[in-house]
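Batch 3, record 17
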Amino acid sequence: MERVWLDEFDGGAVRGAAARHAVKVLRARVGDVFAGYDGSSERILRVSGFDGGAVLVDVIAERELPETPGSRLTLAAALLKGRRWDLLLEKAAELGVGRIVPLAAERSVAKLAGEDSPDRMERWRRILGGASSQCAGRVPQICEPESPASALKMLSGATNKFILITRGTAESFASAVRELEDGETVVMVGPEGDWTDAETQAAAAAGFRAAGLGPLILRAETAAIAAAALVSLAGKDV
Amino acid sequence: MERVWLDEFDGGAVRGAAARHAVKVLRARVGDVFAGYDGSSERILRVSGFDGGAVLVDVIAERELPETPGSRLTLAAALLKGRRWDLLLEKAAELGVGRIVPLAAERSVAKLAGEDSPDRMERWRRILGGASSQCAGRVPQICEPESPASALKMLSGATNKFILITRGTAESFASAVRELEDGETVVMVGPEGDWTDAETQAAAAAGFRAAGLGPLILRAETAAIAAAALVSLAGKDV
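Prediction for the assembled complex:
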């Protein structure tokens, strides 16, 4: 069945981009059935008519999208440039990550906020929505970029808190994932240039456990994707 | 220290692209030291002179690159189009996958061999070399594309054999990874359009275990990356 992202839906009428998609791409006619999707639930809709730009529909069935182990994971990841950040978002959404907190780390090349800031957030939401919709999963929440210091404060209540580090003593993240306590898990992932010592020390002081991903040197977005895959697929609940 | 990919090295002279890189990018002078890398070992080299296009060097130290849990993994992955295949290669190399066997599955959009075939293999090798070099890891071997039937024959001797499926009954790949037997592991990953029934049946007949990656629907390249991350990072040896 065709799937449509319901950006504007009031229970009886599909409007906006979803309506245009239904009419122009799916060539929907009265009686046709498609799946409408808004990131947390999925509805089976039957077309009952058209009204201006709106597609009138009956809701035949509705279900909440399932929670997955990844839904309770927050990735607090240092902003990356260009396609590497987009890739992180896309794969985090596919892997069912619950929330993404972009970090403007000291060595992040990308900035906390620029002139393109509102556009940027809009674009990030589009990437997340598109990827989740492909995968029939929930859409991750994305926050405004934070400094690591304010993110540490914001995330202090999480049950399992990790900061991925590439040097020094760290426990194995893969092993830690098997022993997560029930509750929210937060994983902080640094920028290409790595955390500063001050950043890792502040995280340790805030109760974040230093964890590593083995002997290989992973690019920042790959570390984030691998961490999400481990929690989503190898966590206790699977 | 700067790292140079040694595509042409005879023990005393660096030639070809590596020599050009050393001269033009690193502006190497006599006495300078850099790391030369060929995908299985790393050498510390000191420049002793120049001879035409060649950079003459003394080998100060040499080490084999470490084997990682991923080194014994073969990803037999259905060819994907464009950037998704390139991404699979890049991330497989970062995660230390030992070998990649491209599969021309029945529903693969990309072809077994085209006019661009030699170029294509060359380009794949470049992507793998670049990604491994970034990560100081071994370069995955890449084979010529095979049909799934001939891949099943070629890979029949592996110790742990899996085919990832998205429908039907499957064991959890994440759980299976914790119980791998010593030896080579093969994971077959299907195309965007999924395996045909004939393909999954042939794999089962060849002793491949049907395994799944949980409730989410992952894109083909994400499934391959997640499988590599699980074996590399959550396998028994880590």
